[in-house]
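for ur thesis appendix - diacylglycerol O-acyltransferase. copy paste whatever u need, i formatted it the way the template wanted (i think)
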Amino acid sequence: MDRDLPIERASSSDLMMLATGSRRVPEQMAAVLLLEPGPAFDARSAATLFTRRAAAVPRLRQRLVGTPPGCGRPVWVDDPGFDPGAHVHTARCPAPGDEQALLDLACAIATSPLPWFRPLWSATLVTGLADGTVGLVVVLHHVVADGLGGLALLGALTDGPGVDGATAAEVPRPRPRVAALAADAVADKVRGLSRLPGAAATVRGSMASVGGLRPAGVADNSLLRRSGTRRRVAVVRTDLEAVRAAAHHHGGTVNDVVLTAVASALGGLLSRRGERAHSLTVAVPVAARRPQAGSGLGNRIGIMLVPVPCDGPPRQRLATVAARTRVLRRATTHPPPLESLGPAFRLAARLGLYRWFMVRQRRMHTLVSNLRGPRSPASFAGAPVRSIVALPVGEAGNITVSFVVLSYAGTLAITVTVDPDHVPRPSTLAEDVLGALRELGAA
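the 3d part is after this line
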């Protein structure tokens, strides 16, 4: 192996994404781009363009493979039989051809397991929408990248300066030699031993952001029920500057406004079910990124658990949430639990104990992820990108509804993802979120 080529290993969080995936629901995520094509746009030519660009992105040519005994964690290697065309497809949008039909199709694509024998991604160009737009559904397995890494990959695939100047490697890079892997594994173990003196404090710090090792359980309600394999989504959009202004007025962030609105909407849902909740605990993923060798993708995600009030004056609730998240963000300085307790988590997942725990967990009621997308309008194959919707799927345990927030070109899109067996009408919940944003002066 060329000594200049680094060995790219899967992180502890990456391996956890592999371990928690199941045949029921794969740990995958999708981005749905809505394109506004001009008269010269051709779907097949666009698919060919996507194929060429994807071939020039190193991680999209790679597979994660195991190593011999004593050689450490799995490594990313070039797939010798890589065929980018096998990953890019076309489809026709089902009737009535509106955005919801596109999102339903995207859910079906995103919940279909990607083949493990090749790089873990796919792209589907969707034609036949009633208003003449074209959908682009890009699916990644979570082991390839987290949400931030996925957005970085999209930046290499949409139009932009230098994008089409990149070229694919003509010859796959050779796999690392066993001797090199073994030496690297020894060096990794030595680094691990050097961290042992502070390991107990690191674990305590990691677990503090998720309520500690033995937290008091959250109140039980109908939001916490064993989830199935189906997913359905609805999307609500609002002006990003309006949300930012409402947040800053109360010393908070955009995410604080969203947390407040989400809790209000879920409180309304529970009220319609004859239940009462004064507060809900919301899990907020926090990207703990650091410079690293290799692609800079992968996963390094921590979790912040935020108690969010459901009742009381809306602006007072926002101020409360802003104060709580300021304290919690300052405390979230340790590696995420999946990293500090990686081997234990992975063993539990292999034994089926992780899912056993997740369908019984009482640490959170829902999950709200926040991603910062491109600030300026993007395009693909010359077609402007009207909107981008983030669509995460994966093993949800007993979480029946979750949210992901994506900002793009001045618009904030909030995706409501539900198990339709427990929340049959996600559009109603999305409307309630929008109503709560209006109460906060954020819509």
